Every structure is written in C-alpha cells, then in structure tokens.
C-alpha cells in the first residue's frame, strides 16, 4: 500500500487546523478532524452531537468510545485506503492511540508519521481568544492578523464568521489543563516508537509549514505535486 499517513499532535491553538489545511493539499491525503466532525454533529443535532455538546462547551474531552467509533468508521473508507489520512485532533488519550494502532493493523495501513507542534501556553491563549471561524467553509482566521470578527462575511466563501463556544477564556484554561494531563503523554508514547517529529510551532504559519516540510523531507516524505 503506497499511502502516507500523518497524525498532527499539539495543544489547543497550536495550529493543527491551520497546518492541516495546507498539508492535505501538498501531500494529497484525506483530512480527518475529530473536532470538525463533532462540531458538525452538534450543528446537525445528531445523537452523537447531543452526547458531545456539553463536554465540548466545557472544554472537556468527549468520551473515548464515541470518538474512537467515528474515527474507526471513517478510516475504512475508500479515499483514505487509497490516499492516506491526516488525523487532526486524534488521538488525544493513550486509549485512543491504542485503538488507532489496532485499527491501522486491522486495515493494513502504513504506520503514521506523528508531527507534534509545540507552543507555549501564553501564546496559545492569545491565538485562541482571537480565533474566528467560517460556518460555511470552515476557514480559520485570527482577529488581529486577518481583521475579521464574528458577524462578518467570510472573505473566501461569504459564509458567516463566528467565535467557537469553547474559545471563551474559562473553557480555554480547562482545555489546556486537559491537554497537559491527558494528551501530552502521547509525545512520549510516539517518541518511544520512533515515529515522532518535533516542530516548534511558535513561528508564523508559513515558517511552521517550512519546518514541517523540512522535517518530513528528512524522513524521505515528499509532496505529491
Ligand atoms: P478541536 O477542534 O480538535 O480543538 P483543539 O485541539 O482544541 O484545537 P484547536 O482547533 O482549538 O486548535 P488548532 O491547533 O487546530 O489551532 P488553529 O489552527 O485553529 O477539538 C474541540 C473539542 O472537541 C475538544 O475540546 C473536545 O471536546 C472535542 N474533541 C475533539 N477531538 C477529540 C478527541 N480525539 N477525543 C475527545 N474529544 C475530542 O489555530 C488557532 C488560532 O491561531 C487561529 O486563529 C489561527 O489563525 C492562529 N494560528 C495558527 N497558527 C498560527 C501561527 N503559527 N502563528 C500565529 N497564529 C496562528
């Protein structure tokens, strides 16, 4: 199987979504963001959305069994089997990482390269409080850098710009604390397997992209174009 698979790790606001938008184009892989899937489920009022909403708004993780279920279903789809996947926001616990390893084995998928974006908490807080998103195309903006605010029209698709419910200061501090307790142990987990690429994510988006490309190229992973 010639597919290349990626996992993007990092705290809330590290730039996973921002880098994912570009990586999926440059490396021709399928983007799977558990955050986006869960937000769509909430917006559509599905059973999953109803179960996930309170956890998400409070900045807590959604229970493992729910998230593992949606990712496992998605991985077996034909587009991922052919092109490979970029997982953004999954796994987030050791139990999720173990379940992912089982799913990869069962589906005979190539092991993933794990890109960890590290950024100090004070920078994350500034990024998250200023983040604005488009309800139409999902584009990610920042109040200071892009000059768009909630209620404006998206410069790309004309959709409504909004602020995520979990980008309030109280929810952000809970998300950072959950990250340090439950997700950061994955750095050691993947480092011990030799699959981790460490990237300082505190530079500008194009600089971070260049660092990621350089690290992937050093591992023999080339862009698809
Ligand atoms: P999710 O949507 O995955 O949120 P997150 O991990 O908290 O990550 P974010 O989307 O907040 O940040 P990001 O790293 O993508 O940063 P972004 O590129 O947007 O999850 C949301 C919730 O869903 C979770 O809290 C949980 O409840 C639930 N959930 C999801 N997955 C789950 C799982 N596996 N298990 C259980 N529950 C799960 O950038 C942020 C801002 O910074 C933007 O404004 C951007 O423009 C700006 N920015 C980005 N990069 C840079 C840069 N280099 N320099 C300056 N500004 C930058």
Keywords:
225 residues; alpha/beta; five-stranded parallel β-sheet; 11 helices; 14% strand; globular
Topology:
Layout: E1 6-9, H1 16-26, E2 30-33, H2 34-43, H3 47-58, H4 64-75, H5 78-83, E3 85-88, H6 94-106, E4 113-118, H7 121-129, E5 131-134, E6 140-142, H8 143-146, E7 161-162, H9 169-183, H10 185-192, E8 196-200, H11 205-218
Parallel strand pairs: 1-3, 1-4, 2-3, 4-8
Antiparallel strand pairs: 5-6, 5-7
The protein binds BIS(adenosine)-5'-pentaphosphate.
BIS(adenosine)-5'-pentaphosphate binds next to helix 1, helix 2, helix 3, strand 6 and helix 11.
What small-molecule ligands were found?
A: BIS(adenosine)-5'-pentaphosphate
Strand content: 5-15%
How confident is the prediction overall: mean pLDDT? 96
- Number of helices, counting only DSSP H or I runs of 4 residues or more: 11
Overall helicity: 40-55%
Question: Low-confidence parts, pLDDT < 50 over ≥5 residues?
Answer: none
How far is it from the N-terminal to the C-terminal residue, by CA?
19 Å
Going across the major beta sheet, what is the strand order? 2-3-1-4-8
- Rg is 17 Å
Structural class: alpha/beta
* 3D shape: globular
Order of helices and strands: EHEHHHHEHEHEEHEHHEH
- Specify the biggest β-sheet: 5 strands, parallel
**Strand count:** 8
């Amino acid at each position: 199987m010639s597919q290349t698979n990626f996992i993007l790790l990092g705290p809330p606001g590290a730039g996973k979504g921002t880098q994912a938008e570009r990586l999926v184009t440059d490396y021709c892989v399928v983007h799977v963001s558990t955050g986006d899937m869960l937000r769509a489920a909430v917006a559509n009022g599905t059973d999953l959305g109803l179960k996930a909403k309170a956890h998400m708004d409070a900045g807590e993780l959604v229970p493992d069994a729910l998230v593992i279920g949606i990712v496992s279903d998605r991985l077996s789809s034909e587009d991922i089997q052919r092109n490979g996947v970029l997982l953004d926001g999954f796994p987030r616990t050791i139990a999720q990482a173990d379940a992912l390893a089982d799913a990869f084995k069962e589906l005979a998928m190539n092991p993933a390269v794990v890109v960890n974006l590290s950024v100090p908490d004070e920078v994350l807080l500034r990024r998250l409080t200023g983040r604005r998103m488009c309800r139409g195309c999902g584009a990610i903006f920042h109040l200071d850098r892009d000059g768009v605010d909630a209620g404006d029209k998206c410069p790309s698709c004309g959709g409504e710009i909004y602020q995520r419910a979990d980008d309030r200061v109280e929810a952000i501090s809970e998300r950072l604390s959950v990250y340090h307790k439950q997700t950061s142990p994955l750095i050691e987990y993947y480092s011990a397997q030799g699959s981790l690429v460490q990237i300082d994510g505190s530079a500008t988006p194009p600089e971070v992209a260049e660092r990621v490309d350089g690290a992937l190229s050093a591992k023999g992973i080339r862009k698809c174009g």
